[in-house]
Amino acid sequence: MDKHRCGWCVGDALYENYHDNEWGTPLHDEQLLFEFLVLETFQAGLSWITILRKRDNFKVAFDNFDYQIIANYDDRKREELMQNAGIIRNKLKINSAISNAQNFMKIQEEFGSFDAYIWAFVNQKPIKNNWKHHKECPATTEISDKISKDLKKRGFKFVGSTVMYAFMQAIGMVNDHTTSCFRYNEV
User: Fold this and answer.
1) Over the chain (187 residues), what is each successive 10-residue block's mean pLDDT?
2) How far apart are CA 21 and CA 27, in angstroms?
């Protein structure tokens, strides 16, 4: 029997696998939080499937999303990334991944972990929405506005409210699975 999924992922095996196993699952691992932050910032202006298809390339190019390594990338590494056809070759986004890694660690120092910082915006508990259709889901919320503003104040780049809402969805801060989706009550 076919599982009922959110409409946005149906028909593409990669999308369905991501939806079924990752999207909306509360995430607290620092390395994975940084990975999603990088992927979401690179996604700005593009479709998520484009990023998913390049995810493995990003993982290799960005040292498995190790923010401590990325924070120390030099000009030679920046140029290497700009020549890597397997990722999104956008100089501003590449530079933002590096500065965001540095700022990520500053947040860790201040709050003990990025996890403690980011989840405090939802009082450490996922917001569970009740959408019947995925198109009801907003692109931004007051909380994503607040996160975006705070991250920008801390020097982060490519963290507009829309990007931050997508980040919140991806890491399970908000459950935007449709009510008929098999994952709705699982996450």
Assistant:
1) 84 94 97 97 92 97 98 98 97 98 98 98 96 91 98 97 96 96 93
2) 12
Residue 117 known to be catalytic: no
What's the pLDDT at 45?
Answer: 86
Residue 19: its H or E element:
helix 13-21
Give me the torsion for CA of 49, 167, 127, 184, rounded to 10°: 20
Instruction: Please give the model's pTM, rounded to 2 decimal places.
Output: 0.95
Residue ranges per structural domain of the chain: 7-175
Binding residues for Zn(2+): 6, 19, 177, 181
In CATH, the architecture of 7-175 is: Orthogonal Bundle (1.10)
